[in-house]
Design brief:
The complex is a heterodimer of chains A (439) and B (305).
Chain A: E1 22-23, E2 29-33, E3 43-44, E4 51-52, E5 57-60, E6 69-70, E7 75-84, E8 90-98, H1 116-125, H2 138-142, E9 151-155, H3 165-172, H4 174-188, E10 192-198, H5 202-213, E11 219-225, H6 234-242, E12 257-261, H7 262-274, E13 280-286, E14 294-299, H8 304-310, E15 320-323, E16 330-332, E17 345-349, H9 378-386, H10 390-395, H11 406-410, H12 417-438
Chain B: H1 19-41, H2 44-66, H3 77-87, H4 95-110, H5 123-134, H6 136-139, H7 162-167, H8 179-191, H9 198-214, H10 219-226, H11 231-238, H12 249-269, H13 276-293
Helix pairs in contact in B: 1-2, 1-3, 1-8, 2-3, 2-4, 3-4, 3-5, 4-5, 5-13, 8-11, 9-10, 9-11, 9-12, 12-13
Classes of the chains: A alpha/beta (439), B mainly alpha (305).
Chain lengths: 439, 305
C-alpha cells in the first residue's frame, strides 16, 4: 500500500466526547421532512388528524433509491406542509403533535431474518440511511451479490471538528454493532470487517478493539489511521484501510468494499434486536454559543430550537448555525429547522469561532495543491471556472473533487476555492446534460 | 434568538494562515542577513534598507491609490520586495538609485501586471538585474569595512578563505555575503513551512556539483564557489518566491537544478562574473511550463468515467 493521502490538521474541539449523553425531553411537535436521504422523497401515507405512535410508518419509499419514514413520537398528525430543508431545497413535512406518551406502535417486533433477502428487506424496512451525513439508503449498499464484498469497512474516522456522535456510538452501542456484524457474516458471507479509527480517538479505538476481540467467527480488525481531515471521506478511508483506489465514477463496491458509518451499523443492529425503525438520532450539540455542549438523543423531526433549549439554551447570538461539522456542514439562517435522519451535529458557532479572514489576491503559494487529498489543483479549477473553460475543467478532473474544503481552509488569501470548485462541478455536469440532450 | 444567522457555503473555519503572516516570516528570516550586512559593510547598509523598504511600500500605496484599487500594502509583500532589493545592492549605491530600483520592482514588475501573485518574474531580482545593467555602480561590489579582502570572489584572482566566505567577510552586496546568516534565515523559513527545501537544495547542490567538476574535483574550490556571489540569498529567498516558481516538489527540483545549471554556465562561460539573478529570471519565465509539465496525477483519475 502506498503512503497516506494528504490532508489537514484541524482543531479538534471534541469536548463533548467526555460529557454524558442525554436523552431529550419529548418535544411538543415534530416536523418530519419527506426527504432525509439521497434519492426520491418518500410519499406520505398519513393525513391530518391521523393518530400515530412511535414507529408508525408515515411515508413510503418512492422507488429503489428512497427510504421509508416512521413517526418519532406518539400523537396526532396536525398537517402536511411545505417545508424548507436545511440544504435549501423544499419538500413536504409531516407535522405531528406529541401526546407526551411515546407509546410504541403495537406492530413493532424484531424482524425474522433467515436469508440474505430477509436481511436486505429488514434493513430496507428499518428506514436506515447513511447516518454519517450522506443519507444514502443503506439497504441499497448491501443489496449486491455477496461474493462481491471482500470487506465491510466501518467508518469510525470522525474527522470533522466538534462532532462526537459517532464516537458515542462506538463507546456505547457495541452490542448492537455486534448483532449487525454477525448478521452480515451469516447472511452476506462477510469474512473481513475493518473498523477505521483516527489515532487520536483512543477511547473509541479501545472500545472497538474490545468488541473485535469478542468476535471469533470472522475477522474484525481495528485499523488506526492518521488523525488528518478528511480521513472519514469514503475514498480516503477505503484507500487507507485496503490500499484500493476508487477511480472515476466507481463506487466502493466496484473495488469489493462496502463502507458503512459506525452509527449506521449500530442502528441496523438495534433494528434487528428490537424491530424499532430509525426514529431517533444522537446529535452532537456544540459550539461556543451553546450553554451545555453535549450529545443528545433526540426524536427525528425535533426542531433545532428545542435541541438548543434542552442544552441550556444559547449564551449569545451565534454567528452561524451549522448542520454537521464546520468543514462540510451547511449553515442555516434560524433554529426552525428539523433534526433529520443523517444529522450528526448541530453547531452554534460564535463570531470568534466562525470568523473568516478577508479574501485577498492569490499569491500562488501552492498550499491548496499541496493539501488536496486527491492531488487536484483547486486554484486552477477555480480560475478555469471563472473563465467557464469546460475543456480545461475536464482536464483538471474537477468531478473528482469531494468538496472536503481543505483547500479553502489552508489558503492564506482565504480564496473561496472549494466553493468555486463546487460551482465548477455543477457547471460541468450541466454542460454534459445539455450535450446529451443535443445528441 | 432574534435575528437571522449567516448562511454561507462551508468550510466555516479557517487555518488562520495569512499572506501577511507569511511575509512577516520572510522579513524575520532576512533579519540575520540584514544585521550581518550592517556589521560587515557599515551603518549605511541600514539606510539603504530603509530607503528601499519605504520607497517600495510608498510606490505600491501610490499605485493602488492612483488606479483606485484596494490598498494592499498591509500584506507586507512590498516591504519584503524592498528589503530583498536592498540586500542585493552594494553598500555604495546612491540612494536615488535605490528609489529608482524600488520603483522598477514595484510598479513595472509587480503592480502593472496585476499586483501580488500576478507578476511573471521576481520583482526584487528583476530590479537588481535592471540596476546592474542601467547603473554600473552596483555591478562594482563593495568591500567589507574592516577587511583585508580586496575583491569579490568570483572576479578575484585569490579566493577568500572558506571561513571568511562562511561568515561573510568578503566583497559583495549587503545581504548576500554572510552565508551563515542566510542559512539561519533559510532554515527558519523551512521550519516554519513557508518554503520547502526543494529549490534551495537543488539549486545550491547543482552549483556545488558543477563547480566540483569544473574545478577538477577540488572540494575547497567547489565550496568556495558555492558560497560566493549571491547564490545563498538567491536560492533561499529569491528563487522560492511563490508566484514565480513551481508549486509541486518535482517542479521545484527542476526549477532549482535549472537555475543552478544556468548560474554555472554564466559564471564559468559567460561575460558576467555572476549569474544567479539571470538564472532565476530565466527559470521564472519557464515556471508556467514547468508547472504544467509537473502537474500531479489526480488520485481518482482513470477508471470508467
Amino acid at each position: 500500500m502506498g503512503s497516506y493521502l494528504r490532508g489537514i490538521h484541524t482543531p479538534h474541539r471534541k469536548g463533548t466526547k467526555k460529557n454524558p449523553t442525554i436523552r431529550m425531553e419529548i418535544p411538543q411537535t415534530v416536523a418530519i421532512p419527506m426527504s432525509m436521504h439521497i434519492g426520491k422523497p418518500a410519499v406520505p401515507i398519513v393525513k391530518a388528524g391521523d393518530l400515530v405512535k412511535v414507529g408508525t410508518k408515515i411515508a413510503e419509499a418512492d422507488g429503489y433509491i428512497s427510504s421509508d419514514i416512521y413517526s418519532s413520537v406518539s400523537g396526532k398528525v396536525i398537517k402536511l406542509t411545505d417545508y424548507l430543508l436545511y440544504n435549501g431545497s423544499t419538500t413536504t413535512a409531516v407535522v405531528i403533535e406529541s401526546d407526551g406518551e411515546m407509546t410504541p406502535d403495537n406492530t413493532i417486533a424484531p424482524p425474522v431474518v433467515n436469508s440474505q433477502k430477509d436481511l436486505i428487506d429488514a434493513v430496507k424496512a428499518s428506514g436506515i440511511v447513511g447516518l454519517g451525513g450522506a443519507g444514502f439508503p443503506t439497504y441499497v449498499k448491501l443489496n449486491v451479490e455477496p461474493e462481491k464484498i471482500d470487506y465491510i469497512i466501518i467508518n469510525g474516522a470522525e474527522c470533522e471538528p466538534y462532532v462526537t456522535s459517532d464516537t458515542v456510538s462506538m463507546l456505547t452501542r457495541t452490542e448492537d454493532m455486534i448483532i449487525a456484524l454477525n448478521a452480515f457474516n451469516r447472511y452476506l458471507g462477510v469474512k473481513n470487517v475493518i473498523i477505521g479509527i483516527e489515532k487520536n480517538n483512543k477511547t473509541a479505538a479501545k472500545s472497538m478493539k474490545k468488541m473485535a476481540s469478542s468476535i471469533i467467527d470472522f475477522s474484525v480488525k481495528v485499523q488506526i489511521l492518521p488523525d488528518i481531515y478528511p480521513q472519514g471521506g469514503e475514498k480516503v478511508l477505503v484507500y487507507h484501510t485496503t490500499g484500493r483506489k476508487i477511480t472515476g465514477r466507481k463506487l466502493p463496491i466496484d473495488v469489493g468494499c462496502v463502507v458503512l458509518n459506525c452509527t449506521t451499523v449500530a442502528a441496523i443492529g438495534a433494528y434487528l434486536r428490537t424491530g424499532m425503525p430509525l426514529v431517533e438520532k444522537c446529535v452532537t450539540v456544540e459550539g461556543g454559543a451553546v450553554k451545555n455542549p453535549q450529545n443528545v438523543i433526540t426524536p427525528i423531526g425535533t426542531s433545532i430550537k428545542d435541541l438548543f433549549d434542552c442544552c441550556g439554551g444559547l449564551t449569545e447570538q451565534p454567528a452561524k448555525i451549522v448542520y454537521g461539522g464546520p468543514m462540510m456542514g451547511i449553515s442555516v439562517p434560524n433554529t426552525d429547522f428539523s433534526i433529520i435522519k443523517n444529522t450528526n451535529a448541530i453547531l452554534a458557532l460564535t463570531n470568534k469561532e466562525a470568523k473568516l479572514p478577508k479574501t485577498t489576491a492569490c499569491i500562488r503559494c501552492g498550499a491548496c495543491l499541496n493539501t488536496c487529498p486527491f492531488s487536484l489543483a483547486p486554484v486552477s479549477i477555480a480560475e478555469a471556472y471563472e473563465k467557464k473553460n469546460l475543456s480545461l475543467l475536464t482536464e483538471l478532473s474537477v468531478l473528482s473533487c469531494m468538496e472536503c474544503g481543505c483547500c479553502s481552509f489552508v489558503c492564506p488569501a482565504n480564496r473561496p476555492l472549494v466553493q468555486l470548485n463546487k460551482l465548477a462541478k455543477q457547471f460541468v455536469n450541466e454542460e454534459a446534460k445539455k450535450e446529451a440532450q443535443n445528441q | 434568538m432574534s435575528s437571522l444567522t449567516k448562511v454561507m457555503v462551508s468550510p466555516h473555519i479557517h487555518s488562520g494562515k495569512s499572506t501577511s503572516g507569511i511575509m512577516l516570516d520572510v522579513i524575520i528570516s532576512l533579519l540575520p542577513a540584514t544585521i550581518a550586512g550592517t556589521f560587515i559593510f557599515g551603518l549605511r547598509s541600514l539606510l539603504i534598507v530603509l530607503v528601499c523598504v519605504l520607497s517600495s511600500v510608498l510606490f505600491e500605496a501610490l499605485f493602488n491609490y492612483i488606479i483606485k484599487k484596494d490598498q494592499t500594502i498591509s500584506d507586507l509583500s512590498a516591504a519584503v520586495t524592498g528589503l530583498l532589493l536592498a540586500l542585493n545592492l552594494s553598500v555604495n549605491v546612491p540612494l536615488w538609485q535605490c528609489v529608482i530600483g524600488s520603483l522598477f520592482a514595484i510598479v513595472i514588475v509587480k503592480c502593472i501586471f496585476g499586483g501580488i501573485g500576478k507578476n511573471l518574474v521576481n520583482p526584487a531580482m528583476t530590479a537588481r538585474v535592471f540596476m546592474v545593467i542601467a547603473f554600473s555602480s552596483i555591478a562594482v561590489p563593495a568591500f567589507p569595512i574592516d577587511s583585508v579582502a580586496t575583491a569579490t570572489p568570483l572576479s578575484a584572482e585569490i579566493m577568500p578563505s572558506l571561513l571568511d566566505l562562511f561568515i561573510g567577510n568578503r566583497g559583495g552586496a549587503i545581504g548576500e555575503t554572510c552565508t551563515v546568516a542566510l542559512l539561519i534565515g533559510g532554515i527558519y523559513l523551512i521550519v516554519r513551512k513557508v518554503i520547502s527545501f526543494h529549490i534551495p537544495v537543488a539549486f545550491i547542490g547543482m552549483v556545488f556539483i558543477f563547480s566540483f567538476f569544473y574545478k577538477g574535483f577540488n572540494m575547497v574550490d567547489a565550496l568556495s564557489l558555492t558560497m560566493s556571489g549571491g547564490l545563498f540569498i538567491g536560492a533561499f529567498f529569491m528563487a522560492t518566491d511563490y508566484t514565480t516558481s513551481p508549486s509541486t516538489p518535482l517542479g521545484k527540483v527542476i526549477f532549482g537544478l535549472g537555475a543552478g545549471l544556468i548560474t554555472c554556465l554564466i559564471r564559468y562561460y559567460g561575460i558576467y562574473p555572476e549569474g544567479v539573478s539571470f538564472a532565476i529570471l530565466f527559470m521564472n519565465i519557464l515556471t508556467p511550463y514547468i508547472s504544467s509539465w509537473t502537474r500531479r496525477k489526480v488520485f481518482t483519475a482513470g477508471g470508467n468515467k
